[in-house]
Amino acid sequence: MFVSARRFGMGFALVAAVVAAAALAAAPAKPGAPRAEDLKPLYANASDVAEGKRVAESACATCHGINGISTVENVPHLAGQRAAYLYAEVNSYRSGARASSAMGSAVKFLNDDALVHATAYYASLDPPSPLAANAKTAAPRADPLQAGKTASAACAGCHGDNGTSKTAGTPSLAGLGAKYLVAAMAAYKSGKRKSDAMQPFAAMLSDTDASNVALYFAAQKRSAPTPATGSAAAGKTAAASCSGCHGENGESPGEDTPALASQDAQYIAAALKAYKTGARGDDTMKSVVSALDEATMRNLGAYYASLAAGAPKGRKSLSLAELTQRCDLCHGVNGNSTDPRLPALASQRLDYLQKVLQQYRTEERRSSSMHAMTELLTDADVENLANHYARQKARAVVYVPMPAK
Questions:
Q1: How far, rounded to the nearest angstrom, does the alpha carbon of residue 124 sit from its chain's CA centroid?
Q2: What gap in Å lies between CA 357 and CA 350, rounded to an integer?
Q3: What is the pLDDT of residues 138-194, one digit of tens each?
Q4: 3, 10, 244, 396: least CB-packed within 10 angstroms?
Q5: Based on the domain organization, do 97 and 193 belong to the same domain?
Q6: What is the Cβ-side half-sphere exposure of residue 323, based on CA atoms within 13 angstroms?
């Protein structure tokens, strides 16, 4: 089966519209891309493509353009896109598997023949041109972890290089969840947490700076805790009531609760005392520590300081080249997919790529594989990836038939 977007004379070359056989057989529609075993080739001739253009004019062109080049914000280009992918996505809107009032109303009355013709038509068109390399948004945003490392230099005097404290009474920040660190800095900035030392530093940080610093510290590993007073053995017994939130070994499962393993013992004792007196406001912690005496607080500090720190909560910094290498495994070299079920990304609208990556990241758009690929992306990563693929040259794909063995 062959797919080509090249024009010959006044007509189109033979176009293979690859669709879901189950759908053509009037089986219930399935969300998402069809499985390989569900696919069969249909060879769309010039009259099929012409019929697809008529369908596109009535149902698709207002948003996607009759030439498949969208001029509407956050609406994707369709020209030169993979036919099987287009069919599966439009069919998911038609069946209600994907929710969109605009798309649902546009395609709900299309039958399978109309859908096949429309996808064949758009797949036959010349792909869009890449976004100009000198566009305003061409320059990649700074890597947030590197920016965080630079901004964290002001913290090293108290919290140590890479966020591992060597000063008794001062917490290590390395390996703590980014959400927790951002929330803590915001609390110091607002005055909800009291500290004459921390408040001036927090006040100087913009929200972006705070996020970058948190990402940097979250990616570091805690080590070499300061000496502890108190009994670690007695602290282990007292820690039974803490494991529900802070983990069995002092490594909290979530990013918004601080890890305590290898934390500074004096800091833990001081924080517990602050919750008990109300100097730190947290109703959950206040009720937990209300019955603790100072000896028990020191013992808890000694216990948690004795535990080995687990893996950092954050990810290591990935370059744009490393991120695109991962994406290209499924979407093809430079975003030119050779799998008929997967979309080409090359020369797609920049704003649409940014929107979709954010939707997969937050699970507003559902795909377990895409969420796994995007959940740790930063805003800068999303912007850089979208810029990269919007600037790649889109290429027609050719499917070659293999002789039977």
A1: 32
A2: 11
A3: 556 677 888 889 999 989 999 998 999 989 999 999 999 888 999 999 999 998 888
A4: 10
A5: no
A6: 25
